[in-house]
Design goal:
With about 280 residues, the chain is α+β, with helices and mostly antiparallel strands. The chain is about 20% helix and about 35% strand. It has three domains: about 5-50 and about 185-200, no CATH class; about 50-185, 2-Layer Sandwich (Pseudouridine synthase); about 215-275, PUA domain (Archaeosine Trna-guanine Transglycosylase, Chain: A, domain 4, Roll), CATH 2.30.130. It has seven helices and 18 strands. The strands form five sheets. Strands 2, 4, 7, 10, 11, 12 and 13 form a seven-stranded mixed beta sheet that branches. The chain has a five-stranded mixed beta sheet with strand order 14-16-17-18-15. β10 (about 130-145) and β11 (about 145-155) form a beta hairpin.
């Protein structure tokens, strides 16, 4: 099931076209996809979406063009008898801040063209590295020529590339044979709904989803100001930081940015939401 499939299912269940997600999963991947419904889609950009946590299965002794099990074989090499020891030895070099080269089979665009479309034509072009951060890599399972690792990382990290690079560092090659995203920020797979069974009652309230962003309650007069996009007094955050602007019932009406003595609304609910609150 693709990210697009999930959105289509939820549009049918919730009877609305206003469904958005925080970022796609690789086609072969499963796991957590953060979804926003209705007016909450406006606030996706403000959700705390890092770190990301994945459980990845690496298969050693073979490299593929796409760095995963679906790609054509590029090279095969014998797996060393001391594979586990070598794996444990190279893992630390992939932790911390680093530059990572996106794979050709990715949605990254170069001159407006997704790389995967070029890759399918057999083309490979020069691409820029991206700065990523990997907080930890834990070895969960090991069996002959396979290993399962858990990776906590920044957004934009390609686990397929990590699998490939680990294989190159060991010397026998590797590809990604399974991938599950288990966490995005504070959102976990354990707390997720199955899209085919999802209910509105099971959705996380926006004020809870935006935490730990601070909040400021608006007076009735300020609600009118914010509805029209006007700033209100800032007494809670520093310049450049963000806070929720909520009504007396704790409902999020806007997200504002601190600019000196004022809070400038950057994302505001539709007018009808304010009418209901006033």
């Amino acid at each position: 099931m693709t990210s697009h499939d999930v959105v289509a299912i939820l549009r049918g269940r919730f009877k609305t076209k206003r469904i958005g997600h925080s970022g796609t999963l690789d086609p072969m991947a499963t796991g957590l996809l953060v979804i926003a419904v209705g007016p909450a889609t406006r606030f996706l950009q403000f959700l705390p979406l890092e770190p990301k946590v994945y459980q990845a299965e690496l298969h050693f002794g073979r490299t593929t063009a796409s760095y995963d099990q679906e790609g054509e074989t590029v090279e095969e090499k014998p797996v060393p008898a001391d594979l586990r020891a070598r794996l444990e030895a190279v893992i630390p070099q992939f932790m911390g801040a680093q530059e990572q080269l996106p794979p050709m089979f990715s949605a990254v665009k170069v001159n407006g063209q997704p790389l995967y479309k070029l890759a399918r034509k057999g083309e490979e072009i020069e691409r820029k590295t991206r700065e990523i951060h990997i907080e930890r890599i834990d070895l969960l399972e090991f069996n002959d020529d396979k290993a399962v690792i858990e990776v906590e990382c920044s957004g934009g990290t390609y686990i397929r590339t990590l699998a490939h690079d680990i294989g190159q560092a060991i010397g026998c090659g590797a590809y990604l044979s399974n991938l599950v995203r288990t966490q995005v920020g504070e959102f976990t797979l354990e707390g997720a709904q199955n899209p085919k069974e999802a209910t509105l009652d099971g959705l996380i309230p926006l004020a809870e989803a935006l935490q730990p962003m601070p909040s400021r309650e608006l007076s009735e007069t300020e609600l009118f100001r914010v509805r029209n996009g006007n700033p209100v007094a800032n007494t809670i955050i520093e310049d450049g930081h963000y806070c929720m602007l909520v009504d007396s019932g704790g409902r999020v009406m806007a997200v504002a940015r601190g600019e000196g003595t004022v809070l400038k609304p950057e994302c505001v609910l539709p007018t009808e939401a304010f009418d209901a609150a006033l």
